[in-house]
Amino acid sequence: MENNLQETDHYKNALLKYAHAYVLGKRKSKGEKELEDSEVSYVIYARKSTEDDQRQIQSIEDQVESCLKYAKVNKLQVVDIIREEKSAKVAGKREKYNDMIKRIYDGEFNGILSWHPDRDSRNMKESGELLDMLDNGILADMKFVSFTFNNDAAGKMTLSILFAMAKEFSDKLSEDTKRGNRRKVGEGKYMGSAKKGYINGNGDYFRPHPDTYQIFKQAWKMYQNNSNQSKVGEWLIEQGEEISTNMLSIFFRDPFSAGIYCYGDQIVDLATVDTKFQPMVTPKEFILMQKLHRDNPRGWHISSEFRPFNEFMVCGDCGNFMTTGVSKGKIYRYLSATCGNRKCKSYRKKLNLKPIANTIRGETIKEFAKDAIRQLKNVPEEMYKKAKDAYFSERNVIVKNLNDQISLLKSKLTKLENKAKKEDEKIYSVSDPELIKRFTDNLKSILHDKNEVANEMRLLEKKKSEYEYQMESDFPPYDDFLNFFENALLVLDESDNIYLIDQIARLVFLNLTAKDKKISGYCLQEAFIGFENLKILTGVADGT
Question: Following DSSP, what letter does each residue of 146-182 receive, concatenated?
C-alpha cells in the first residue's frame, strides 16, 4: 500500500512539473493570454505633423512628458518611446509608425500609449488596422492621456470616439471579466475551448460526454498499445470524430486527460477541486507516453514521409548522419541506413571497401537495441539507485546554476527598475526641453534593457521547468523501470512496427555509429550513462 502511494505521488509530481513546462511553452489563445500575470508592455508614440504646426496643441516632448506622467500614475510598464514628425492623414507614409506596428507583431511590446487617438491615426485604414489588432489579441491595449477630439470629418470623429470610449469601457469590463475567469479556472470550471470527450455540464464543470468520452478514452488506449497517431486519427474518423493531425497531437500532449487543467498561466489539479472529474488516463500512463515520444518530435506527426532512424545513425567513416530508406535484396525489400557523402564513398573506393557506400540493415539496428534493453532489464536495484543518484546530482547542479542565473537576472531587473524610477523623477523635476529629451532617451535605453532581461529570465524559467520534469520522468520507481523495458522487449520481439522500434531505440541511445555493416559505437541518452554494464555491449568497444 505504501509503495502504491509513493508511486502515485511520484507520477503526480512529475505530471505537475510537466504541466508547468507545458504552460510556459504552449501557444496560448487570446483568452488565455488575458489571464496571464505578465504585464502589458507599452510603447509611447508621440507625433507632430510638420505640415500644420499652427494647429498642434502639444509638441512632441510635451506629449512624451504627459504620457510618462500618465504611465507613472497608472503604473504602466513603458519599454520604448517613439517620436515622429509626419502627417497621419495618408496611410503608410510614417516610417517610425510602420516600424512600431511591425515590432508589435514581432512581440517586442503589446500596448500603445499616446496623448490623443489622432496621434496614432487620422485615416480609416490605420484606424481599422489598430482595431483589428485589438480584436485579435496582437495588440493587448491602447491608452490615451486626453480624450478631446477634433471635428475634422464626421466619419473620422465617430471612429475616434468609438475607439476611445469603447476601449475605456472595455478596460474595466476586461478587468472584471478576467477576475471572474481566473476564479472559474481555479475551481476547475470550463473556460475557453471545449476538451475532447468532455462537456461543461452542471455548474460548468467538465463531465464525460455521453457520446464521445469513451471514444477518446479508447483513442488513448490505442496510443498506449503501440498505435501511432496516424492510425488513431483514422480510427477516430471512422467513429465520426473529425480531428486534424495537429489537434490530435495537442490532445495527447495536453495534461488535461490526466486531470491537470492548464489555462493561461494557471495550473489546476482537478482532483483537488472537482472530486467528480473523470480523467481518461492516470498520471503514470500519461508521463510514460510523454517519455516515449519526448526525444523524437517526429513521433507526433507520423506521415508517409516518416523515415525511421533519421538523424540517428552516424557513419563510422565520415561522421555524417546516414540516410534511411528501403533497399531491395535478391528476394525481399528491407530497411537500411546508407551514407550518402560523396567524399566518404571516394575514400572507401580507394581502400577497396565494399559496398562503396557505408551501409547497415535495419534488422541489425533492431537486434542491437534489443541487446541493450535486455541488459537494462537486468540492472540490479542497487545499480539503478546509484545511477539515479548520480543523474540527479548532476541535474541538480544544472538546476542550481539556472536558479542562480535567474536570481542574478531578478537582481539586475530590480536595479534597472530603480534606475528607471530615478530617470523618471529627473524628467518631472526639470522644464528645459533639451534636458527632458536627454532624460527620456536615457529612460528609453533603460526600459529596453529591462525588457531584454525580463525575456531572458522567462526563457531560463522555461528551461528550468523542463529539466525538473525530465528529472522526474527519466527515473520512475524501480519496478516500473523494469516493467517498461520488459514490455519494450516484447514489442521488439513480436512487432514489425518500425515506428515503435525507432522510438524505443531512441529511448536508450542518442545515436548509433555504423561501420562495415555493424554497430561500431553508440552515445547513450543521459539517463542511462550511469549504467556501467552498458559499456560492454556485445561487439562494441567504443561506446560512451
Answer: --PPP-S-HHHHHHHHHHHHHHHHHHHHHHHHHHHHH
Above pLDDT 90, what percent of the chain?
14
Q: What is the strand order of the sheet 323-328 is part of? A: 323-328, 333-338, 359-361
163: buried, middle or exposed (CB in 10 Å: 19+, 13-18, 0-12)? buried
Assess whether 112 and 7 both reside in one domain.
no
Taking every pair of C-alpha atoms in the chain, what is the biggest distance, in angstroms? 91
Sign of CA dihedral 286, 291, 297, 300: negative
Domain count, the chain: 2
Residues 177 and 208 in one domain: no
Bond preceding residue 279 cis, omega within 30 of 0: no
- Number of residues that this document lists for the chain: 544
CATH, residue 115: 3.40.50.1390
Residues 48 and 104 in one domain: yes
H-helix segments, 109-255:
117-120, 124-135, 154-186, 213-224, 229-238, 245-253
What kind and span of H or E run contains 95? helix 95-105
Q: Are 12 and 283 in contact (CB under 8 A)?
A: yes
Range of the domain at 11: 2-29+197-300
Tens of pLDDT, residues 328-380: 555 555 788 899 888 898 888 888 888 888 999 888 988 888 888 888 778 88
Show the DSSP H helices in 378-518 as ranges: 381-429, 433-474, 478-494, 498-508
CA distance 29 to 388: 38
Q: How many CA atoms lie within 13 A of 470 on its CB side?
A: 20
Grid coordinates representing 316 are 563510422
Together in a domain, 89 and 17: no
Note whether residue 428 is domain-resident: no
Pairing state between β 333-338 and 359-361: antiparallel
If one compares 531 and 336, the residue with the highest pLDDT of the two is 336
Find, among 461, 28, 456, the residue nearest to 266 by Cα.
28
Q: Are strands 141-144 and 111-114 parallel, antiparallel or unpaired?
A: parallel
Would residue 456 count as lying in a domain? no
